[in-house]
Amino acid sequence: MQSPSSAIPDFYYALFAFYEPALTTIGFIGTLCDPTTSHNTQAPWPVDSPPPAVLPRASIVTVIQLAHVCALMGILNFFVLTAVRKHLASQLAVQEKIIQAVLIPLLLGDVMHLYVTLWALGDDRWDVAQWSPMLWTTVVLGFSLMVPRIMWHLGIWRYVDSRDRVPAGNNHIPPATLAEKN
């Protein structure tokens, strides 16, 4: 069996260092281009209270700042995960600890993001037929990142140092060789 070269295999690396930054950067660019639509499509509006045609400046700033922070987190993933794979290639246990330090807060953020999104919808949270396309996108893409983060933490499809480390001295000497030495 070939020994792993990273505690974040290609599957996870592609998701967290390319897919996630692409999603968050595209979201940021979309928000920059049209902050009003980004704001107004986050959730369904009551029939008797349509979304504002013009957002207050504070709302525009808030929506753009939120999108910027999301993009920054995605881009940070790219740089941290790439640096870990490149500069710590021979230190899988250290890689695992650093990646874990990045993915734990992101997993907590995924859970809170979905919880707060559903909480904010109030009694209509389970009326999925009324969900806007943006709300569906938020939930589906949120799960598309949260589930692989959970999988990484469970050790699925990746190197886990406590489970996969080859002991120092590699005590895999065939029994026949040991008998010959005695």
Short description:
It is built from seven helices and no strands. It is mainly α and 182 residues long.
Write up what this structure looks like:
By secondary structure, the protein is mainly alpha-helical. 68% of the residues lie in helices and 0% in strands. It is built from seven helices and no strands. It has helices spanning 10-33, 35-40, 57-87, 92-120, 133-154, 161-164, 175-181. Helix 1 (10-33) runs antiparallel to helix 3 and helix 3 (57-87) runs antiparallel to helix 4. The longest helix has 31 residues, at 57-87. It is elongated. It starts with 9 loop residues before the first helix and ends with a helix. The model has no long low-confidence stretch (mean pLDDT 91).
What is the string of SSEs from the N terminus onward? HHHHHHH
**Backbone shape:** elongated
Radius of gyration based on Cα positions: 23 Å
Helix content: 55-70%
Q: How much β-strand is present in the residues?
A: under 5%
Structural class: mainly alpha
- Biggest β-sheet strands, sense, barrel: none
Q: How many E strands?
A: 0
Average pLDDT, to the nearest integer? 91
Number of helix segments? Answer: 7
Q: Distance N terminus to C terminus? A: 30 Å
Determine the oligomeric state from the structure.
Answer: single chain
Instruction: List low-confidence stretches.
Output: none
Q: What would the keywords be for this entry?
A:
single chain; 182 residues; mainly alpha; elongated
